[in-house]
Amino acid sequence: MTSLAFTSSAQVLSISSAYGVNLTGNERTWDCPTFDVSKLEREIKRVEDLGLKAVRLPISFRYHLKSDPDFGKKLRRLLRSCAKVKIELILANFDHQLSEEHLEEGTFQIIDQWMAVLDILPKNTKGVFLEIVNEPTISPSSWYKASMSILSEIRKRNNEISIIVGASNANSMFELSRMKPYPFKNLIYTFHYYEPYIFTHQGTSWTGDQHATVGIPYPYDEEMMPVMNTKVKGTSGEVNFRDYDKTGNIVAVEDKISQIFNWAKTHDVIIWCTEYGVTENADRESRINYLNDVSQILRKYSIPSFLWEWEGNFGVKEIMNLSNK
């Protein structure tokens, strides 16, 4: 049995309830990433050793298809490696640049990218999943129009491969709960879970002043709460900070996740949570508490889940010690 022991605490991150993990890096075009198959294979072997079943691979197809003439060969090698260790692989389309201003053009570009990927994939695509767009931010109506076109074109080429699709507002579970399922078979609906953001995104520069307060514990503990950062005043973070006693606990986690579970049950569709996590700006014990609580609730509702992320500013790799017992 594989277990994870933390060096500085008796607490353990119980990721056995997670289905998989995100291996990030190939979506970060600002770093000019190289599609390093050897490194991916090493990390996938570690993931398999942990007992996880799948890897979600964020990729900028826009970048790699153009910049790397060997991308197709490398991707096929990775697929063979995943099949060898029986790890399922989600190919998630990041950096898609879909916008309201260039909706039609952007949709066509995404379709072209997926057609190129389908040309690369082998005939047997068992264990491979296509996530058409990560975290669309256009309006719900525009996203439905664009996603219908993307799904239709993929299905014309491959009627069997599993496709993952989420809602607008960055794969919001709340937007998903308002959606009507698509008229296609073999779809998996996804949502991302980072609630409450005031905890999971504390101190993250890219989310603005609303998350400037750091030292926020999980679960909520009045005696451990920091003083609100003055930068937060006047932003939505002020209200979220005030209400954290109601949102920073497992009861609130279950309340939200149960709602999307009920939506999926009503429509008889499959749902996955392809991202959940917390920034390393939070203290280690709080991170463990939070990830364990979210994992527990997702497991309770039989929702396959993917930690965000293996390495990076939300990374779980550096806070755990792998030991085989």
Automatic annotation (TrEMBL):
Its recorded name reads Glycoside hydrolase family 5 protein
Lineage, opening ranks: Bacteria, Pseudomonadati, Bacteroidota, Cytophagia, Cytophagales
**Which keywords has UniProt assigned to this entry?**
Carbohydrate metabolism, Cellulose degradation, Glycosidase, Hydrolase, Polysaccharide degradation
Q: Which domain of life is it from?
A: Bacteria
Cite the Glycoside hydrolase family domain residue spans from the record: 18-312
What's this protein's family per the entry? Belongs to the glycosyl hydrolase 5 (cellulase A) family.
The source organism is Belliella filtrata
Q: Which GO terms describe its molecular function?
A: hydrolase activity
Q: Which Gene3D superfamilies match?
A: Glycosidases
Work out whether the entry's keyword set contains Hydrolase: yes
